[in-house]
């Protein structure tokens, strides 16, 4: 009886174990099937993703092209708007040009010219046939405005340039020679800078450079004219046979005045013009005064040659003074060495010849008085 019960209990446990195994096998099979389905889905998903990528790639490129095209369209519309502005605002700008820089105000006038030039450059870059008429109007307007600006430059410069000054006033009081007011040089510098950068002037010499030399050149030569004349007149002694005494000729004062007024003028030039233009313009501005100096030196040289026995020392003095003038100006400005050397050449040659003549004359006098 006990054995039967034990066998029955063992059989029940086996049945329960088999049932659990069957359940596990069933779940394992379902898991396997589910895994296969997941793998299949992943395969489909990967294939779909690749297809989407293949489709999205061209779409992305096309989107970028469309964005670029949109930006280009915006830029074209903006350019068209800018091109319309000159025609729309031309009347306003023309009114400013018509009244001129003094009535319109210098800053306002210069800003107007810059706007006109900017409009002209934009239209020229667009190269649209529809703009040709407006461009012709702009060129006419800019040309007229530039001409007015040149006249303004000349008027402002003349207003600050006296016919001449008295150099002795500055030399005797050891004062610096006058320069143009800073406000004037600032305005003139802006005019020069604008005209130099203007596309209609580019490639040509700035007209205000010539205007400057034409106005300031006569002022320099007129201011030094009396001292030039004094240098010649003081060479003529009351007693023609008297020996020349050092320092009695006016050439020293003349050279000192020339150095002072030239240095002040160089300062003016540098305040208005760029370094590329200032050197040449400075020489051009000083040309008339240097021509007068050359004439003075020639007259002195002729006098010295005519009175070599008594006035040869004047040749040495002129040579020394003008050599110092040339060296000082070159050191301060880097200019005028060549023209001053040319001015000095005749009297320097006379000084060299006079030394031999002086030695020969001394020898002759010695022989005349030599006791035999």
From TrEMBL:
A Pfam family assignment: Exo70_C
Domain Exocyst complex subunit Exo70 C-terminal: 248-365
Keyword Protein biosynthesis (UniProt): no
Keyword annotations of the record: Transport
GO MF annotation: an example: phosphatidylinositol-4,5-bisphosphate binding
InterPro entries, A to Z: Cullin_repeat-like_dom_sf, Exo70_C
The keyword Transmembrane is annotated on this UniProt entry: no
Any single GO CC term annotated in Swiss-Prot or TrEMBL for this entry: exocyst
GO biological process: exocytosis
Family: Belongs to the EXO70 family.
Listed name of the protein: Exocyst complex subunit Exo70 C-terminal domain-containing protein
């Amino acid at each position: 009886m006990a054995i039967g019960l034990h066998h029955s209990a063992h059989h029940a446990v086996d049945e329960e174990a088999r049932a659990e195994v069957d359940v596990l096998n069933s779940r394992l099979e379902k898991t396997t099937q589910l895994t296969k389905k997941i793998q299949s889905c992943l395969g489909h998903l990967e294939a779909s993703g690749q297809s989407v990528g293949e489709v999205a790639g061209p779409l992305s490129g096309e989107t970028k092209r469309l964005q670029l095209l949109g930006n280009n369209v915006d830029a074209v519309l903006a350019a068209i708007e800018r091109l319309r502005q000159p025609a729309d605002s031309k009347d306003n700008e023309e009114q400013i040009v018509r009244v001129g820089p003094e009535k319109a105000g210098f800053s306002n006038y210069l800003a107007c010219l810059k706007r006109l030039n900017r409009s002209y450059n934009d239209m020229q870059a667009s190269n649209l046939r529809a703009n040709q008429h407006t461009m012709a109007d702009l060129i006419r307007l800019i040309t007229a405005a530039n001409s007015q600006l040149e006249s303004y430059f000349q008027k402002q410069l003349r207003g600050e340039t006296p016919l001449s000054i008295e150099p002795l006033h500055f030399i005797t009081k050891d004062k610096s020679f006058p320069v143009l007011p800073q406000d004037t040089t600032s305005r003139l510098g802006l005019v020069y800078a604008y005209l130099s950068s203007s596309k209609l002037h580019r490639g040509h010499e700035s007209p205000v450079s010539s205007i400057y030399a034409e106005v300031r050149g006569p002022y320099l030569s007129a201011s030094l004219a009396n001292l030039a004349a004094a240098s010649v007149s003081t060479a003529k002694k009351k007693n023609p046979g008297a020996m020349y005494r050092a320092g009695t000729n006016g050439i020293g004062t003349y050279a000192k005045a020339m150095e002072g007024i030239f240095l002040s003028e160089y300062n003016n030039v540098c305040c208005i013009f760029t370094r590329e233009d200032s050197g040449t313009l400075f020489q051009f501005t000083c040309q008339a005064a240097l021509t007068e100096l050359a004439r003075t030196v020639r007259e002195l040289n002729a006098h010295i040659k005519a009175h070599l026995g008594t006035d040869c020392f004047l040749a040495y003095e002129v040579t020394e003074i003008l050599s110092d003038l040339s060296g000082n100006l070159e050191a301060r400005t880097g200019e005028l060495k060549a023209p001053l050397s040319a001015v000095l050449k005749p009297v320097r040659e006379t000084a060299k010849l006079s030394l031999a003549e002086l030695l020969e004359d001394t020898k002759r006098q010695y022989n005349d008085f030599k006791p035999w």
